[in-house]
Amino acid sequence: MEEDFPIDDTYRPQSIEPRWQARWQAAGIGEVDLGGARRPYYNLMMFPYPSAEGLHVGNVFAFTGADIHGRLRTMQGYDVFEPMGFDAFGIHSENTAIKQGIHPKKLVAANTRNFRRQLERLGGRFAWSHTLDSTDPAYYRWTQWIFLKLFQAGLAYRKQAPVNWCPSCRTVLADEQVISGHCERCDSMVEQRSLEQWFFRITAYADRLLDHLPDMDWSEVIKTAQTNWIGRSTGASLTFAVEAPAVGQIEVFTTRPDTLYGATFLTLAPSHPLALAIATADYRPAVLAYIEQAAQTPSAEADGERAKTGVRTGAFARHPLTGEALPILVADYVLGGYGTGAVMGVPGHDQRDFAFAQAMGLPIRRVISPSAEEDSPLAEAFTAESGVLVHSGPYSGLSVAEGKAAIIARAEQDAFGTAKTTYHLRDWLISRQRYWGPPIPIVYCDHCGAVGVAESDLPVLLPETDDYVPQGTGASPLASIPAFVNTSCPRCQGPARRETDVSDNFLCSSWYFLRYPSHPDVTDRPYDQTLIDKWLPVDSYIGGKEHAVLHLLYTRFICMALSDLGLLPFEEPFLRFRAHGTITFQGGKMSKSRGNVVTPDDLFDRYGADTTRLYLMFLGPYQEGGDYSERNIEGIWRFLQRVHRLVAQSTNGPRACAAPHLADLHRVVKRVTEDLETLKYNTAIAALMEYNNLLRQREDAISHQELATFTLLLAPLAPHLAEELWQALGGAFSVHEQPFPTYDPAQLVEATATIVVQVDGRVRERLTVPAGTSQAEVRRQALELEAVQRHLADAEVARVVFVPDRLLNIVRED
RNA sequence: GCCGAAGUGGCGGAACGGCAGACGCGCCGCACUCAAAAUGCGGUGGGCAUUGCCCGUGUGGGUUCGAAUCCCACCUUCGGCACCA
Q1: Same-domain status, A736 and A786
Q2: What is the CATH number of the domain that holds A761?
Q3: CB A781 within 8 Å of CB A769
Q4: By 3-state DSSP, what share of chain A in percent is helix, strand and coil, each rounded to 5?
């Protein structure tokens, strides 16, 4: 079946790339026998949102790096599953659809086709028979099923709460989708609205999500981001009795119970339920005005730090240890949504409390000092955690750590408080008041309340409508489709109404990789357990860091929850995650609004996919990314031309590599292997360039072994050209199914060594000696060198430092 | 403010504590050409210079025979979080 492929004189990617792509497709190169694989290796990359603009260089960069990894593992003998799909639900698709006046369904179909065409041109080793589209009812049926499972387990719940509302997208957003008070999608300032919404109880998993991190083989940058986002802080919950005029209690959270003696006031968030209730008649109007004003201005969270404002309530709380009356104030620097929405004001040892105390004329007291002797007045808050307690009654003299423990113990004994842990992480807001998403599978019945749709009735199909523009009323477009809304209760069969919100797009992407192996053959379950056992958790996941606290955290949560429900045999879905870098353009973000999105078709047309792949990988370290500029592409183009020419002109050499060249050959195998395995694609390419330069400048004939090895090393990076060269070298189809070259460390040993000779640490001369020459011998030769004698002058030799086969440093006496 | 990453030629970037600047771009020179492009060959951190020498990895200290690399302090840039008690 082998066709004869006489190699062209010149490298013409435009003709060889489509030819090999067709051949690979016909041979099913990317497909793997999922059931029968002996060494399964799941090579995952983040499935893209198929935008109207098509694949951009950032996608190409990401996928190329992951594809190289998959190809390497394949050649190393693994059965690599490398699926690709489309994350096509969500606001992004919908906004484009609204803008262009094309129904999202049509738009997505066209965009997906275009993406697939581009991905095929790129030459990825994708298992297309398992591709999926999150907007396909056969997929989102199971997205809804996951919602139901969480609902049944009490992990999905509905509550009225202040939520982030994006006025431009006309929907609520999860905390993770709000970046410094702005919508991550459209950058609009986010407002607070009080709405009844669906949440996932991710906070119940906060400790587990956090505690697994240290042992996970993930890029540190992601682990740090998740650690910070979960934001666990330990301290105490303390209760203060409100004395007058009302009677009640205020619970505060503090990480510094040791500073309790320094509390001189209490502060409530404007949204605190007691804020108005405790105010005395005199202060009530001012408190009310402050609360109303705070409700209108963007929340403190949206605004960042600003001048402290607040009002007194006229009410006082009793200090649990000193009995002192502490004024209670309301101020917007205290966040309603964190801790208990109330803090004890310790101005001496908290910057914010200090600023607030100054603004409001409240007393500032030192209760922690660097040492027991030091007791100067405070010009600023002393926030160090090292020091001793002072002016703290019986606790004076204790260290901060001792003080914390002692005061918590006292609080527990006297029943005014207890040790407590709080988190920055909040529950995941799932509802979206939009059209283009999977409908939340819940029905509201007057008798039975919120009832899950029967599993047998899934999917709840997204109704066809041309009226999909969000209203901004807080209701989804689905609410105005009576045929969708009106239904019967799954439990009592009485009249009922459907939930009209759809779920967050991040739910779609939280489980897609569980589905890939089963899709599309398994239709009666979300995934087949045998395939899950065989293929998951994912061996390698490569993706962008922008999803550190979105997709990557949500996904871990969903898998943990499914694991607890006995639906998955593991808690952590990704054994290894590597964050690739970001491709910028002229130093800035590449975005449609800046009009600087570069699409790959142009590069494919001019240079071909292989040059594009290598060029992007050569831009800089893969995990750091780089700035896109076409300056360097000519260098890659020339390199591939030279490689092509070298092989085309050297097919008649000897079979085996001559002995003197073996060390070079083994060295390049070692370098490329190590660099590819650690995703250092830029230096792997440099090593191949060096070797290519070495071969083409060599006087004696180049062997088949050298060319074949080089071609195999090149294969993961430039799959089309490698296939072409492999063919020209008489190799059997396909180069991508050959074993990756291995090296023999014994062959790396050089016969001679170049020793750097230094005098006082400065290089003065070089010596070539047989490898393994002794220090005494190297020293003897070195001392005879003219340059050494000149620099040594008449000085005595104080000592000699010798690194075998590398360096000799002669140190002079002072 | 906090967390993270990083500062190296004209540019992108290489360098287990041991020859700084691999590899590539750009530039200069040469060859080929009527000419250009393409291609090939050579050169290319700065300074002084006759062999040679000095200075150089953001800044200032330190450790070391020896530091781009390790330690301390600082500056700058990028990314993330940001009144989280």
Answers
A1: no
A2: 3.10.20.590
A3: yes
A4: 40, 20, 40
Residue with tokens 């697994």: A212
AA identity, residue A276? L
Measured CA to C1', what is the nucleotide nearest A689? B23
Q: How open is the CA angle A791-A794-A797, to the nearest 5 degrees?
A: 80
Question: Which residue type, as a one-letter code, is found at position A807?
Answer: L
Contact A539, A41 (CB under 8 A): yes
Structure-token pair, residue A159: 């509550």
Give a yes or no: residue A54 inside a domain: no
- Can you give the distance from the CA of residue A756 to the C1' of nucleotide B55 in angstroms? 21
The distance of Cα A741 from the centroid of its chain, to the nearest Å, equals: 33
Give 10-residue mean pLDDT values along chain A (814 residues). Answer: 57 92 94 94 94 88 96 97 94 83 91 95 95 96 97 94 82 82 79 86 93 90 90 91 80 93 94 87 91 72 67 92 93 88 92 90 90 78 85 90 92 92 91 92 93 93 87 83 92 93 93 96 95 96 89 95 97 94 76 65 92 94 86 91 90 85 93 95 95 89 93 97 94 94 88 85 84 86 84 80 87 79
Report the amino acid identity of residue A328: I
Residue nearest to nucleotide B12 (CA to C1'): A619
Report the domain count for chain A: 3
The pair phi, psi for residue A711, each rounded to 5°, is -60, -40
Torsion of CA A542, A544, A545, A547, to 10 degrees: -100
Which CATH number does the domain housing residue A716 bear?
1.10.730.10
Q: Of A503, A504, A464, A470, whose CA–CA distance to A484 is shortest?
A: A464
Place of tokens 């960042």: A304
Q: Are both A777 and A653 inside the same structural domain? A: no
Nearest nucleotide (CA of A221 to C1'): B4
A472 secondary structure, DSSP code: S
Tell me, in Å, how far CA of A580 is from C1' of B5? Answer: 13
Q: What is the dihedral of CA A779, A780, A784, A788, to 10 degrees?
A: 10
**How big is chain A by its Cα radius of gyration, in Å?**
34
Protein A647 CA to nucleic acid B34 C1', in Å?
A: 34
For helices A681-696 and A704-714, give the axis angle rounded to 10 degrees. 160
